[in-house]
Amino acid sequence: MSGTFESVNEKIIKSKKRVQNHGEVFTPKRIVKKMLDLPHIRQACQNLTSTFLEPGAGEGAFLVEVLNKKMKMVLKNYGNDLTQYENYSLLALSTLYGVELLEDNAQKCVMNMHQVYYEAYQQQAIVHGAKMKNKVLDSAKLIISKNIAQGNFLTKSSASGNPIVFSEWQPVNLRTNTKTIKVQRTEYTLEDIIEGVKKADGEPSIHSEKVKQLDFFDLFNNEEIPVIEAKRMRYIPVKITDVYKEVMEEING
Questions:
Q1: What residues make up the domain containing 131?
Q2: Is 47:31 a contact under the CB 8 Å cutoff?
Q3: Is residue 177 within 8 Å of 201, Cβ to Cβ?
Q4: Is 26 a member of any domain?
Q5: Which tens digits make up the pLDDT trace of 71-107?
Q6: Which end of the chain has fewer CB atoms surrounding its CB within 10 Å, N or C?
Q7: Domains contained in the chain, number
């Protein structure tokens, strides 16, 4: 009974302590829908590739509603072909970003967005008499995990103190009636985005460094230990249904 009461009246404040410590409040759905009816926001929702960045994502109320609108648009335009639906639904998902300070809210935001995507995709698979593809679901999970960050928007830092990093998923072959979309992934810090920095296609924000494991006896060798230079890597364009593989290549020179 209490659960029903809360769902009807929508808990605006989760706890007094969290409001005092973090200024945490929750926007009612009716307010979110009014926000989405504002002319410039409504127009952006009608553009599949328009991006949204929510600086205080909470549990994803705003982003979930935008995703619902975009998924309905994908269904209307590409629902007759399951492959097209898979590709364009992932593209729609890739345009939504959020930053949330509190860990439990960030996790709930990720879960809520994944649930919306999963249920919409499941329904379309049933309509087409097909099974959902693991690679599509895995790519959806990766996109959401890279697009929703736990951190402080004001300091632009993640919970670990490192810069917040987002991935841009830029379509490289998007034309009328494109069936299989390829995307170029490039990583930007939140600072990069705010400052309008343009990076080379495929450039990661942090270059991974592979350290050579020394043999135990090298510690007793008087010879100078060679310095192993980090390989410069970049993401390569891939089908949007394959982004979960996170394929990279070495940059020569």
A1: 38-250
A2: no
A3: no
A4: no
A5: 999 999 999 999 999 999 999 999 999 999 999 999 9
A6: C
A7: 1
